[in-house]
Design brief:
Blueprint: E1 4-7, H1 17-26, E2 31-37, H2 49-58, E3 63-69, H3 77-82, E4 85-91, H4 98-107, E5 111-116, E6 134-138, H5 154-163, E7 168-172, H6 179-186, E8 190-193, H7 195-199, H8 203-214
Parallel strand pairs: 1-8, 2-3, 3-4, 4-5, 5-6, 6-7, 7-8
């Protein structure tokens, strides 16, 4: 199973983001993780599809995934797909038509991903495991970077891995050199990293260090 590092741009300096993205991609990170927040599902507001389009023009070959922390994610599917996102994730907590949303994304030629918050049980996504390419288990409460890792969330990673041995399982929140190996041992294979990389004195070295840990 492929292991991937997905730096979140949320924690980086947006005024110099293009340099940071080029640096972490060159160092070996395989995914650009885009945290899209609407100020309703979570309090902060981040950016929209126009920002993603601008970033796409700078790194045209990179794989983008949009993590929609929004109340009505289906309203944004088309815009982010057209902006160049190869995978779009939405939250199970955001509505009652998750299966249909996955079908919609697949019809657009985009990978569908489902995310669950720390307080949401695995049962909420069990019926979707055959129609998603990835399940994102939040290991912090969504909305802000720099939070402490919630280790109890890893039990959900273990359960999903038992149910679907080949499915991509992503963890997001508090991932650093101490928590990444723990999450990997639980069964995660895609790792969103934000604050740790943004604060690193040497971004290239930090990315390569995490890549070495993944093996």
């Amino acid at each position: 199973m492929k292991h991937s590092l997905a730096p979140s741009i949320l924690s980086f300096d947006l005024t110099n983001l293009h340099e940071s993205v080029r640096t972490f991609l060159a160092a070996g990170a395989g995914i650009v993780h885009l945290d899209v927040m609407d100020g309703q599902f979570v309090p902060p507001i981040t950016f929209g599809d126009s920002y993603v389009r601008a970033l796409r023009s700078i790194v045209p070959q990179a794989f983008f995934e949009a993590h929609l922390m929004t109340l009505s994610p289906e309203r944004h599917f088309e815009a982010f797909a057209e902006a160049g996102c190869g995978r779009i994730l939405f939250h199970a907590e955001a509505g009652v038509h998750s299966y249909r949303h996955c079908q919609t994304l697949q019809s657009m030629g985009v990978e569908a991903g489902i995310a669950i918050n720390p307080g949401t049980p695995v049962e909420s996504v069990v019926e979707l495991l055959d129609v998603v390419s990835l399940v994102l288990v939040m290991t912090v409460n969504p909305g802000w970077g720099g939070q402490s890792f919630i280790s109890s969330a890893l039990e959900k990673v273990r359960r999903i891995r038992e149910l679907r041995p080949e499915l991509n399982i992503e963890v997001d929140g508090g991932i650093d050199p101490k928590t990444l190996p723990i999450a990997q041992a639980a069964g995660a294979n895609v790792f969103v990293v934000g604050s740790y990389l943004a604060k690193a004195p040497d971004l290239t070295a930090a990315v390569r260090g995490l890549m070495e840990q993944m093996g």
